[in-house]
Design goal:
The structure holds 2 protein chains of 2 kinds. By secondary structure, chain A is mainly α. Chain A has 2 domains: 127 residues, Four Helix Bundle (Hemerythrin (Met), subunit A) (Up-down Bundle), CATH 1.20.120; 38 residues. Helices cover 71% and strands 3% of the residues of chain A. Chain A contains 7 helices and 2 strands. Chain A has a two-stranded antiparallel sheet. In chain A, a hairpin with a 5-residue loop joins strand 1 and strand 2. The N and C termini of chain A lie far apart (58 Å). By secondary structure, chain B is mostly helical. Helices cover 71% and strands 0% of the residues of chain B. Classes of the chains: A mainly alpha, B mainly alpha. The interface between A and B is medium-sized, with 17 and 20 residues. Chain A: GO terms for molecular function: NADH dehydrogenase (ubiquinone) activity.
Amino acid sequence: MMTYIVFILSVIFVVSFVGFSSKPSPIYGGLVLIVSGGVGCGIIMNFGGSFLGLMVFLIYLGGMLVVFGYTTAMATEQYPEVWVSNTTVMGVFLLGLLMEVMLVLYVLKSEEVGVVFKFSGMGDWAIYDTGDSGVFSEEIMGVAALYSYGAWVVIVTGWSLFVGVLVILEVTRGD
Amino acid sequence: MNPLIFTTILMTVLLGTMIVMMSSHWLMIWIGFEMNLLAIIPILMKKYNPRTMEASTKYFLTQATASMLLMMAIIINLMHSGQWTITKVFNPTASIIMTSALAMKLGLTPFHFWVPEVTQGISLTSGLILLTWQKLAPMSILYQISPSINLNILLTMAVLSILVGGWGGLNQTQLRKIMAYSSIAHMGWMTAVLVYNPTLTMLNMLIYIMMTLTMFMLFIHSSSTTTLSLSHTWNKTPLTTTLILITLLSMGGLPPLSGFMPKWMIIQELTKNNSIILPTLMAIMALLNLYFYMRLTYSTSLTMFPSTNNMKMKWQFETKRITLLPPLIVMSSLLLPLTPMLSILD
């Protein structure tokens, strides 16, 4: 099972994505988002990226999702929608599950588990050994490079987030 | 809208397109597209009524789907070539998906259904930005990946777009829908020559933007959104009546006006590449376009459209002054003699 752990985790990942995109009430969407965040962290850790995986838990689940949960709890209705309460939601969820099951069967039958592992053909994150100051991992260097060589990316993403807030406020403000 | 916020959001639309055109990393291009989409939504929704909200929602849904398809094509390209720089797209699957995504963004057939509905639901100025500026970013990406685009798919989409753009505009009296169908047809002309000579695509884009800007500004000047209200311009500002005539004939591609230049160059380039049936079909289908432009000129400039008697003595508030309008009119009608200058593009 350990050799297929990334495959299993990615199946759970997709199933939880189906779970929240079949649109139950947002609070239940947040619930499966926690599951998908944890499973995504597991996938990244299997490629050697412990820092990024723990960042998912800390920043994404522990910061953004908590704020989302609080705001949803303020705006929730008396009987929120579950996956089984509404025919449409259940239908979409079952359809998504069916497609995922068919895909899993296709992948397992055709022995093409390589279709999932093709990314790992590019290798895990490389580990550098500089000799004097110890061992560096490439993924942490990548995060550091974001703030040095990738300053333009920081500017662009920061500006997009800021304008995103402006746009949302403008759209919901109305007249 | 608060003027400061409006300026910020408008600048973000510009910044998004600039990022798409300037970047060499596929992820930055995707970010540019998303920034562009996000920032143009409140511009489309400037007037707050259910029609603009519906139009903005339709625009957002189609463009977001196109961005998702683009991201999938980028990742398939990454899987097969291992690099993120924007050059030829090496994998045929990724190339087809990317072409479909960019066609959805441009409004090519069979993804053209959102163009008339979104253009009709928004104000004239927002429609202007939608039909001119928003075409720049996807077209620049198509230009950059043009060596690897599957010819059959692109030419099919182009020819069908010319047909749909001409045929669909025949039954319209609303000016914004007419401009939307004209945009679909022009995008078809532009993408037909993309694989053969991408420079002509850019030339066509330039002249199309000038002519569409002119038309929209003439509509804004006379505050008309239907054929009926356009037919009253002889009473309000008789000069714009003649200018509408000239610009519409230029859009239809009649010599000796500038609109003939891209069509002529495109047909010449296609015949140089030994395809004769295709440009013949395209030229014939452009006649459909010309027909509904002629119908607009007939009701506006050539005849006095039937109206009640008090419409013949209209008064109006002081007309908006559009400074850019006269140079645009000159450029969109008189540029044809400059065609030999295109030889400097080699």
